[in-house]
Specification:
Leucine Aminopeptidase, subunit E, domain 1; 13 helices; 6-stranded mixed sheet; 9-stranded mixed sheet; alpha/beta; Aminopeptidase; 480 residues
């Protein structure tokens, strides 16, 4: 269940509370007794910054802001999301349902960051668990602040809801979430949030001659889908739309180039995390009624070695007429993304952003700690995107995009080949995609942070919902 964040005007000493404070805080003003104040002083002398007082009927948390004195603002806010995570974990361990957050200096962004970290930490995917004993108990976060508005709280709740929707989609096994069901889930999100959704079926995709998407689908009994989502408010601030593209490979065996390494298929239900991210972002943008025209495209299929699966050596004619020599059927994401990027040309976009769990090379390069990006966007667009990446701590690492890398995907018999060899795999994948663009564009390889095997603070374990907060923050800033 998603936590609800609410504004409150009344301090309640019967429920658990977190104070953002400092060493000069007058502790008796917080309703603490002498023994508790002595305990706090003892902890401060021991240089502890996060102090917990168990009052048996509730827990009082104190976070000393001196911990973040030497941090940049985005690092401070990330640290405070971590404080939210610690708070949520403790509350659930003690079976509490509600927490009040307040600040002795009425800090706004800091309190919102704690609330965000706490709420996202409470996420669970229990759909297939028959024993619900481990269900988290925290249900409500109350913010006490004169500086936080109802709109601030509304946007925070929408952010949390959208991230959790993306996580749910990525955590779903392929036995439920095939390409058709994925498209239906996006339709449902459109109905809830008020954006338009059109799903192209296999016959329509064949009529469009989307060779990339159709070739990947050849090995499957389940038809592909191509989902088009649009949010076009009447007073949009942009004349040309922002277009989002998300990879929707609902399961990836590698095709006939079967994934060879141990356990390498175990998490391949997550190969549609890019599609989930752009769909959930559309949900957030529309539900927030942001005055910005945004379109999202999600080509979806599974990649299997059955039926008449495409083979290494095949030459595929893509949606835009270019030909591709397939040398590895496990380099499938770029095939269907290429068709979507070509399709995006019809919208004459101001900018196109694509999100994909595309390469192991990106994950190997920077791990789960950021997003690899590259592309042809303007320096101003890149700067704004990187700023949003810092704001939500989904940091962007821009890789070089030199022309020389394009030489690595030259083919002897076709316009290009779908892999570039043993070096610079993330970049050659990007150079492949670039061939299908004629507009400002950025590619985001989320292979590292999309699905993780260890608990990582408020990101949790397994699906993280990465890129939803990045996209939403970016569009919010554009819409201001």
């Amino acid at each position: 269940m998603t936590i609800q964040v609410k504004l409150s005007t009344k301090t309640d000493h019967t429920i658990s509370t977190l104070f953002l404070a400092n060493k000069k805080t007058k502790w008796d003003s917080l309703g603490l007794d002498k023994k508790e104040i002595d305990y706090i002083d003892k902890k401060i002398k021991a240089d502890e910054k996060f102090i917990t007082i168990n009052q048996f009927t509730r827990i009082v948390f104190i976070q000393l802001m001196e911990e973040f004195d030497k941090k940049e603002n985005h690092q401070k806010l990330e640290g405070l999301r971590g404080v939210g995570h610690k708070t949520c974990t403790t509350l659930n361990a003690h079976k509490y349902a509600t927490i009040q957050l307040t600040s002795v200096n009425d800090l706004k962004d800091e309190l919102l960051a704690v609330a965000e970290g706490c709420a996202l930490s409470n996420y669970q995917f229990l759909k297939y668990r028959t024993d619900k004993k481990e269900t988290n108990t925290v249900k409500e976060i109350q913010l006490i602040s004169k500086n936080i508005t109802k709109r601030d709280v509304e946007l925070l709740n929408i952010t949390i809801e959208a991230v959790c929707k993306a996580r749910d989609l990525v955590n779903e096994p392929q036995s439920y979430l095939d390409a058709v069901t994925f498209a239906n889930e996006m339709k449902g999100m459109g109905k809830l949030a008020g954006f338009k959704v059109e799903v192209l079926n296999k016959k329509q995709i064949e009529a469009l001659k989307m060779g990339g998407l159709l070739s990947v689908n050849l090995g499957s009994k389940t038809p592909p889908t191509f989902t088009i989502m649009e949010w076009k408010p009447t007073k949009a601030k942009n004349k040309k739309p922002l277009v989002l593209v998300g990879k929707g490979v609902v399961y990836d065996t590698g095709g006939l180039s079967l994934k060879p390494t141990p356990n390498s298929m175990d998490t391949m239900k997550c190969d549609m995390a890019g599609g989930a991210a752009v769909a959930a972002s559309m949900y957030a943008i529309a539900k927030s009624n942001l005055p910005y025209h945004v379109i999202a495209l999600v080509p979806a299929t599974d990649n299997r070695p059955g039926e008449n699966a495409y083979t290494p050596g095949d030459v595929i004619t893509m949606y835009d007429g270019k030909t591709v020599e397939v040398l590895n059927t496990d380099a499938e994401g770029r095939m269907l993304l290429a068709d979507a990027l070509s399709y995006a040309k019809k919208y004459n976009p101001e900018l196109v952003l694509d999100f994909a769990t595309l390469t192991g090379a990106a994950a190997a390069a920077i791990g789960q700690y950021g997003i690899v990006c590259m592309g042809t966007a303007t320096e101003k667009q890149k700067s704004t995107l990187k700023e949003s990446g810092n704001n939500v701590y989904e940091r962007l690492v821009e890789f070089p995009f030199w022309d020389e890398y394009a030489k690595l995907i030259k083919s002897d018999i076709a316009d290009m080949k779908n892999i570039g060899g043993p070096v610079a795999g993330a970049i050659t994948a990007g150079k492949f995609l670039e061939k299908y663009t004629n507009y400002n564009w950025m590619h985001f390889d989320i292979a590292g942070p999309a699905f993780i095997n260890n608990n990582d603070s408020y990101r949790g374990k397994n699906a993280t919902g990465v890129a939803v907060r990045l996209i939403f923050d970016y569009v919010k800033n554009l819409a201001k």
